[in-house]
Amino acid sequence: MKKLRRFTEADVTAESAFFMQRRQVLQALGISAATLSVPAMARADLLDWFKGHDRPPAPSGKPLDFTRPAEWQSQLAQTPEDKVTGYNNFYEFGLDKADPAANAGSLKTDPWMLKIDGEVAKPLTLDHDDLTKRFPLEERIYRMRCVEAWSMVVPWIGFPLHKLLALVEPTSNAKYVAFKTIYAPEQMPGQKDRFIGGGLKYPYVEGLRLDEAMHPLTMLTTGVYGKALPPQNGAPVRLTVPWKYGFKGIKSIVSITLTRERPPTTWNLSAPDEYGFYANVNPHVDHPRWSQATERFIGSGGVLDVKRQPTLLFNGYADQVASLYKGLDLRESF
Ligand SMILES: Nc1nc2c(c(=O)[nH]1)N[C@H]1C(S)=C(S)[C@@H](COP(=O)(O)O)O[C@H]1N2
Ligand SMILES: [Mo]
């Protein structure tokens, strides 16, 4: 997904390396201290990526009050908390998977204002406490699939977006919902420096069709693993759309705007031939630079048994969401 250099085979294995100690990585790669100074070209990228980060500890947020509706529970093996909160994409804090956990502590998430406006009868602003008090919170165990072909199973906590949208009363002109991440270059090194932020245009923006936004699976997420979201996962509020690639799940949202026209979205602006507006998980539509047929599931296993499994259409949620796309060519509208 990184724009500055090509996605290489080294990247594909880099993620398993992330969960090892540096010493084990070098051993696994057969690199001795003597050869370290001149790593083989094929390994240079991985070493660069690994950059001496060891796995960061999971920070803990405030415990939340929530229920566990049976409908959203699951027998799927969950990705452990330290991986969910230690292996992240949040380019505002750097491109490496360990960067968000290491750097996102600088983000001030309280006080917070989330504005809901645009084509609505009753615009609304929620403050930090409203986010966890205004709507009953539910735990929902969702599959999560990054466009980079890794996946997790995560116990998110939050509320369905449709409850918030009902409150603001969309007008008949509302066709899309646009989301925006906070713009705070003083707190987000990637917004200040093009190199750190991967050359993306900030603030990060995302969007959904109104019917996708109203779907019962679509949630505004305020917690994970029983506690308030840590900043690296998008505190204090982020979007979760489990049938779409992870980049649709915009973090640290400050505005939700209902619009007539389809809003611009960050990765689509950056590379329109690689990242579409829809971004529905689909094993049959490959990324131009890699296959989407399978994915590496990040579970509790050790580094050597990161499991490869088939990618599921709509990430396993086809029964619930396929009807949204009747008549749409999923290859053309990727
Ligand atoms: N603002 C913002 N939101 C973002 C991103 C980002 O870089 N900036 N990365 C996206 C991508 S590519 C993924 S896979 C998910 C990762 O969420 P997680 O780190 O909580 O697993 O966040 C998404 N939301
Ligand atoms: Mo992603």
TrEMBL record:
Predicted to be exported by the Tat system. The position of the signal peptide cleavage has not been experimentally proven. InterPro entries: MsrP, OxRdtase_Mopterin-bd_dom, OxRdtase_Mopterin-bd_sf, TAT_signal. Its EC number is 1.8.5.-. Its cofactor is Mo-molybdopterin. It catalyses: L-methionyl-[protein] + a quinone + H2O = L-methionyl-(S)-S-oxide-[protein] + a quinol; L-methionyl-[protein] + a quinone + H2O = L-methionyl-(R)-S-oxide-[protein] + a quinol. The keyword Metal-binding applies. SUPFAM superfamilies: Oxidoreductase molybdopterin-binding domain (SSF56524). Gene3D superfamilies: Oxidoreductase, molybdopterin-binding domain. Mo-molybdopterin binds at N88, Y91, E92, C146, T181, N233, R238, G249, I250, K251. Binds 1 Mo-molybdopterin (Mo-MPT) cofactor per subunit. GO terms for molecular function: metal ion binding; molybdopterin cofactor binding; oxidoreductase activity, acting on a sulfur group of donors, quinone or similar compound as acceptor. Transmembrane segments: none annotated. NCBIfam families: PRK05363.1. Belongs to the MsrP family. This is Protein-methionine-sulfoxide reductase catalytic subunit MsrP. The lineage of its organism: Bacteria, Pseudomonadati, Pseudomonadota, Gammaproteobacteria, Enterobacterales.
